[in-house]
Amino acid sequence: MGAQNDTRILYLDNAATTPIAAEVREAMLPFLDTEFGNPSTRYPLGVRAARAIDSARSSLARIVDVRSEQVTFCAGGTEANNLGVIGQARARAGRGKHILVGPTEHPCVRASALSLVREGFEVEFAKLDEGGHLDLDDYVRRMRADTVLVAQMLVNNEFGSIYPVRKLAALVRQHAPQAALHVDAVQAAGKLELDFPDLGADSIAISAHKLHGPKGAGALICDLSAPVEPILFGGGQESGRRSGTENVAGLVGFGAALELADANLTSTWKHLVQLREAFNSGLESTPNCSLIEAGTKDGILPSIATILIEGIPAEVVLHHLEARGVMVSAGSACQTQKSDISPALFALGFTAEQARSVLRFSFSGSTSLDDVNAAVAHLAHVREQLGAHLS
Amino acid sequence: MNTSVRSAELLLVRYGELSLKGGNRPYFERALVRNIKAACRDLSEVKVERIWGRMAVTPERRLERVARRLQDVFGIASISTVRGTEPTLEAITKLSAEVLAAALEKFPSDGQVRVRLRSRRADKRFPLNSTQISQTVAEAILPAHGERLKVNLKQADITLELDVRRERAFVFADRLPGLGGLPVGTLGLGLCLLSGGIDSPVAAWLSMKRGCAMDFVSFHSHPFIGEGSKRKIEQLVSRLARYQAKSRLYSVPFAEIQTAIRDNAPSSYRTVLYRRAMQRIASRIAGLVRAKALITGESLGQVASQTMENMTCIEDASSLPVFRPLLTFDKNETIDIAKRIGTFDISNIPEPDCCTVFMPPKPIIHGKVEICRDAEQGFDLDGLIDAALEGAERSQIAPAW
């Protein structure tokens, strides 16, 4: 990293990953040490590991209001989304082979849907309107009697737009009655209340490392009646839905992180709102930098603030900030091909050049107001410095 | 969940049977208030008021989730999500139209729906009486739905209920079913002998439904049987723990008693004698924790140990009444409940329970009490029971979802 030794690190890329909370680390430690048993074994060392997973599973089930058996633990958000998309589409292939994918899905959803094309599935993408909102009318027009899967994220990872998944669920039931609705809730978990029965989806995917848990742990939560075909085969762990020896320490950390996030949900939200407001008001005095407000109708996740820096490639700003210890993300905007511009930016009418000038700041419960103010000050300096260069 | 529920202010909780309890009613109500608060403690602070012979539960947040949680609280017959407005005829009419529209969403758009309005007027200063409120509101909101609605005061698909109070008026139309029964704890404490099977958790649940708080005892034959069977018992208790505030499990070492019975008693009586020893131990624990009855999952004729004669032999060893809620249940009836309460899949985990240790080739079917008593004279049963109790572990089991 470019940060000098005496530079304080301002980590503002929490949508990419979050630091592990002290309590989470503490909970995990025994399972990286003496409690190393394989949960499938029959002696106490193994059974204790199994109990630890039971407890993490129960935490997750309680928090999203499902039963423990609806939780399939796996190795992170990508795998959970792969299982949600591929596993459910294959299980329903007898009813149809049409898949509808949201306009701004993460590659792990898009790519897993597209991987099914070679199995005869037809994959179609929904649209955003020019305000950055889900175009529900367009969604409905694309729904068919043979649609077997609709995959739609709950929170947009570029702007934090909260999508109206509950409304979409009702439309899916009405217009695509054979379809399962899979929801990537990776960015939402730990910040938004996730109430599975209320959401109306058939499955949701979440990941531990976005909520101060460890990497390599995630979960697919399914309706009990939702058929899911496994994509990994072996010892039949996770009720046969996901074979492979469980990542015990990771799952224990996941459980601890979920409990922590749930206990602090309201206060974290308030804190994030404060941070985003401070960031925004700081930005107002920074020339040529503006917050991108897209898809705000159904709410915005306050942990994400994405800005457009007119005239300067985000990549360059990113590295200048990094030299000052500020870690942010240029996200999907750093791609060079026009065709690679994120669909969200494209829908908002961004040119390729503008899309390359988009920078994402993302906060978490552990980000302080000082961090945000300092980061904005750094941004102003960098902007001034680079502005002078460019002119 | 529809928009009507989303903007609801409070939950109206009806309690069926405890309203029959006459002079004891406040006792049952207080217990229900306690249980409601305990059930929601991880979700939200809740305010509970007794009104209209029902309860108004106002959660600070997460109203829909609290409503679902209350569906697992014994003693509640049904729950309605209630919206509130200013106590003016205009506001009440507007809100009634919205609540009705939301309720209609659940019905197919082409069929006819029977509807009725019911009003109460706690604030007698309100210019209309309750009948007039119903009539006036009905005349204002029903015509918009044309032929689709038919008023039927006797039998309706949607009952729109209006309650006009001094500070606020309330409107609701939905009813989530509750579990019924009586508030857990109002009928005292029971001790359930929990095996890893399908029946005993259901027996515990049914007793809890009738107001028993429940402690659990399980018997463990280590080293004949492994730690996994302990985990299975814990999982079962953690499921049942959702239905009461506190769940304690006593895990009792049982291998030495089984070995002594194997070595000293007629082999055909082994299972019956195991169970007699369990009843003795459970009775002792019940004495310590002030449980008033033992609860088992026995069902008449289901297995060899569950004939009338054998049950007589077994109960003879208990110093407390033995309740058998499943006595007359068919297995399928039990399985239906086990599935509903989430214990079925756990019970099906293939872990042996202690009764399978030294299973006799031909178990007695029509046992005799005298033979049991005689057989127990042949070894130091009391000493073994003391030792088992000495080695018993007590744990508090948190609810699992």
Walkthrough of the structure:
The complex is a heterodimer of chains A (391) and B (401). Chain A is of the alpha/beta class. Helices cover 38% and strands 13% of the residues of chain A. In chain A, helix 1 runs antiparallel to helix 8 and helix 2 (44-64) packs parallel to helix 8. Chain A is globular. Chain B is of the alpha/beta class and 401 residues long. Chain B has two domains: 3-179, VC0802-like, CATH 3.30.2130.30; 189-396, 3-Layer(aba) Sandwich (Rossmann fold). Chain B contains 14 helices and 15 strands. Chain B has helices at residues 3-6, 25-39, 63-70, 89-104, 130-141, 199-209, 227-240, 255-264, 270-289, 308-315, 331-341, 344-347, 369-377, 381-390, and strands at 10-14, 46-51, 54-59, 76-85, 113-121, 149-151, 158-164, 169-172, 176-180, 189-193, 213-220, 248-253, 293-295, 322-323, 393-396. Chain B is elongated, with a radius of gyration of 27 Å. The relative contact order of chain B is 0.12. Classes of the chains: A alpha/beta (391), B alpha/beta (401). Chain A binds chain B through residues 42-44, 47-48, 50-51, 54, 58, 61-62, 65-69, 166, 193, 195, 197-198, 266, and chain B through 1, 42, 61-62, 64-65, 68, 226-228, 230-231, 234-235, 238, 342, 345, 398-401.
